[in-house]
Amino acid sequence: MKEFGVLLIMGSFAFATPLMGYLINKKYEKYLGFWAALSFLISIFYVFLWHQPNAPPSYLEIFPSPISSSLRFDGVTYFFTLVFLILGFVSALHSVSYMEHDKNLTIYYTLMQLMMIGLVGLAMADDLFTFFVFWEGMAISSYILVAFRYHLDEPVEAGMKYLIMSGVGSLLLLYGISFVYGVIGGLHLEQIYAYAASLLSGGLYLPVLIVSLFLVGFGIKAAYFPFWTWLPDAHPAAPSPISALLSGIVIKAGILGIVRYALPFILIDSSIYAPALVIISALTMTVANIIALLQEDIKRLLAYSSIVNIGFILIGVAAAGYGVVEYGLSSAFSHVFSHALGKGLAFLAVGGILYSMETREIIKLEGFGRKHPLTAMALAMALLSLAGMPPLPGFWSKWFLILSALGAGQWLLAFIAVFNSVLAVLYYLWLIQRMFLSEPTKYVEESHEIAFTIKASLLILIGIMLLLGVYPQLLYDVAHTGAKAVLQMMG
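Now predict its structure.
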């Protein structure tokens, strides 16, 4: 029961933020970022304090029937909550200086905290009704944050595109939930898994429509092929700390939904959906990689790189669909964590670049590493991890994913994964070469020093990545905690 106190902590901080913003002088408003960061840091320690690795799931009923809303805390909850809060903490810390010249910062930090509450609530939801409520809370907050700089055309256009596409995804998801209730008579996870188990033991009904709606509804948020078109616009247009959250954890909400609620139906007949996941994974990696090669805007390049890595995560989900559930999900969760760290660090490093020289054009960033070595090294480390270079965490998670594909008998998918890793290395190294080996441009020469809070956020993520790279067992153990929780539900 005590585990659910994290939502109370986060909610208390979030609802106090508007009051604090009203009471303090506007010139101190930027320091609300420390308040938000404190909220996430306390929540991280709280989760660590009350999590017991081998304990059975705990439950908290919010409303009894007929609404029937409840929360659960298990290995999946622990894993995703930890990933969400770590990235939320560094993004809030980064925002203190990055957003200091923006207006309406009280609204900004309130929305950031509400979005994080929505994400943690998704990880704790024990039924599809509760899940959908938190899903919409997370989505609405993220729409507004993408368009936060509404005085500019690009954020408004990107936010509207994101709103329309994600709204359609939510509608399809709601249809899928209604069919689940119609078929099963309930929305709780235990009911869904029990129903799936009954079909595996001899049932004849295959809920094709439910899985299709879930794969599209969750797929729009996860931004895999062909539902990614909102992402390359939304991520560059949003403030860089929000780009880090969108790319690092918000799109992972779609993966969480697939694993929690679609996977039980997928496993009923893997001959239909596992090949579909393989095809989606391969197309997502390959097409997005090719488009990334053509980008001249550094944030758009990183946005397409996020799509590529969603394709990698789907390798593990596809392997689970073929019956390699434990290792497939462990490898998928490993890459969820390593990508969240790597892409979060990359976008926050780019945030440092924008703070210093206010340009996203790669050609103008040549030689940036010579004047600002820490920020450039942080970006280089993030890119090398995303490329799968040892001994960084991205290498280990990609290695686990390739092994899971081989374990599922998907040799071609494993080859495509290796090919796309090599392809990604090309533009990552090209970018690093421009940052360090080229002569500084006049834009770099005129750039100013990067603020301490931005550097601090980068150093924290660098430290975590080095720790997980040197001790990959820590990465795998945390991910395996989530995979074991899914297996336990399957019985």
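The mean pLDDT is 93.
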